[in-house]
């Protein structure tokens, strides 16, 4: 039997007639070997759905939506590569203390902010103290820095964190776009006039566009392939694809609900298409503080009421059925999808036994992209199990904030994958995007996984135990695992090198360039 990863690869290949998952270009040409030299005077125009809101990392309320806008402007101490691996950025190396209650990060020499100020330990500490002070009002920062009790400059190029308990996820947490390093001199105006540390510096912003230009003082001189980057928000997917066809943009986040549009690009040598599995899972988030969603049997009923295979078919089979939070890798349980076959009659029985016959739920969905495609179908499926789902479409930048407020019963969205799977648990099951939290058993399983050393057998075992527990007693309704789908002209290079593109749905576009 094919493994889950092999099945996904086969489906992606068949659906897009692609040569490989690494990159699939028109006429079989790889995305990164387009003919001609890279034009360092070029302007790259790339489009995603969500608009720019503000540019202060610690003020972000939509971490993944801001990856694309923050990624080229800011470096963190650590970063993410195109394969989902942890890489050095402003820190060259780091080490955990023997007692596991502190971490020391050694900074890269010669790095500067966009205003020319040096990126030394004092500047880094100023950034991190600012983030620590803001975490009580920002759940994203609390999730990343929860166990951190302090940060000090222990040398001109050394920064030391102290933690209240072992926190092996800290290097991965510091790669988050909400912890990018900004010039302390610009803290007061970062929202509208950011002064960052990445390969590109800010030029201008409008309601649906952000413009950056190469920062010639960046520590890695070859990192910025283009003279300018223009990020355009085009929420409507077909309009985004039409903008690519008409030459208004050079590349776009296509999203899998636009798979039919990408077939035309795939067969045209003037374009290229890239598909990559991610750690994102399409999910119905449930607020378990709302009765009767506080009853595990009602949540099980919802899992039986969703026809995952039918939903996958709506996007060409690209969104593979899932009942667990990890599509692949540590924590993934092969064969788990058989636990919740589509069975509306069983859903009705569970609801009746729980006294929830005639259940009505109020929810929200993103009025764009995959959520907009699947939400009506999910609504119709739940109706067959006697569940009345009333849903309203909201802006992508507002959705999580609305759900975190505790008002809706559910949110039709996706798990945003993390560099470290343990951080996925923190955000999606223990708080932030799980207003009701989880049962004591599931919480204990998650805490065990979070505390285990990254890459250790103990971590893998703990993640698997968590997955088994959350399948047996679901917190949310996981639907399908989402691959990334990008499209661009044949002249666009670096599409397959974008950081974050193997983890979540919005990429860091710092690697993009154009050939002559």
Automatic annotation (TrEMBL):
Q: Which GO terms describe its cellular component?
A: ATP-binding cassette (ABC) transporter complex; periplasmic space
An example of a GO molecular function for this protein is: peptide transmembrane transporter activity
Which PROSITE patterns does its entry note? PROKAR_LIPOPROTEIN (PS51257)
Asked whether the keyword Signal is assigned, the reply is yes
Gene3D superfamilies to which the protein is assigned, alphabetical: Dipeptide-binding Protein, Domain 3, Periplasmic binding protein-like II
Give a yes or no for keyword Signal in this entry.
Answer: yes
**Residue ranges of every copy of the Solute-binding protein family domain listed in the record:** 86-425
Question: Under which name does UniProt file this protein?
Answer: ABC transporter substrate-binding protein
Give the organism the record lists: Amycolatopsis bartoniae
